[in-house]
Write a structure and sequence with these properties.
With 230 residues, the protein is mainly alpha-helical. The protein has one domain. Helix content is 73%, strand content 0%. The chain contains 10 helices and no strands. Mean pLDDT is 89; it is low at 226-230.
């Protein structure tokens, strides 16, 4: 577990550094790539003091992002991921959903009648799932998906963070040719959308794996429980 914790932190730092370099190149109005980055370093003296200010600001943004994503409360991470202010946890609608689950919803509702009796209250659904998670949180299939979710969710928050700074930089540098802007817009936008959908999907899988174990489904190492009904 310590190794995975260190790997998680290392992944966040690497992702923040790479996005900081992308922002640095954009603010210098340089195209994306290794060669432009090396060119900026070789031309450091010629581009001073502007390049010094840009490098310092982008480095500060990257460090702040890496720290922020570690300090941000989990409830706020879920709010940013699922775009819900109240009851943002993916378990808040797990008992009445149209998405594919590895069990029948009627079996789940029969197991937890208090959810149906509450009118499928998001609060009750979240509380019932949380109780089940405390019982099964140490199972391998739950641990694996939970670790995966934590990593993807943090990387998504970072990508959203850098996307905001890129858009702000675009406003500041309105004179940058769109041929250059388009590359960065594609990179920042694509990574954010990909991580958004991936993190949401894994979050739902964490929820479904816990509920599947609660219903007595056996853990299979070859296939995560949350992939869907057979």
């Amino acid at each position: 577990m310590k190794f995975l914790s260190f790997f998680h932190i290392a992944l966040v730092i690497i992702f923040a550094a790479l996005n900081g370099i992308m922002l640095y190149l954009f603010m210098l109005q340089l195209p994306y790539g290794v060669d432009p980055f090396l060119f900026s370093l070789a031309s450091w003296d010629k581009l001073s003091p502007q390049i010094v200010y840009v490098a310092a600001i982008c480095a500060l943004i990257a460090v702040a992002g890496a720290v922020l994503v570690q300090r941000l409360p989990e409830v706020w991470k879920n709010r940013l991921l699922y775009a819900r202010h109240r009851y943002p946890h993916p378990a808040s609608d797990a008992f009445l959903t149209t998405r594919k689950q590895p069990f029948e919803s009627r079996d789940l509702q029969a197991k937890f009648p208090m959810v149906k009796d509450s009118g499928f209250s998001r609060r009750v659904q979240t509380e019932v799932w949380s109780d089940a998670y405390r019982r099964h949180g140490d199972k391998t299939v739950v641990l694996n998906t939970r670790i995966h979710w934590d990593m993807l969710r943090d990387i998504y928050i970072l990508s959203l963070y850098f996307l905001c700074f890129f858009l702000l930089g675009w406003v500041i540098n309105m004179g940058v040719p769109f041929q250059i802007v388009g590359i960065y817009l594609f990179l920042y936008g694509t990574q954010t959308l990909f991580l958004l959908f991936a993190a949401r999907r894994i979050g739902f899988r964490v929820v479904d794996n816990v509920l599947a174990l609660e219903l007595g489904m056996q853990e299979e190492r070859s296939k995560p429980l949350g992939r869907g009904r057979k």
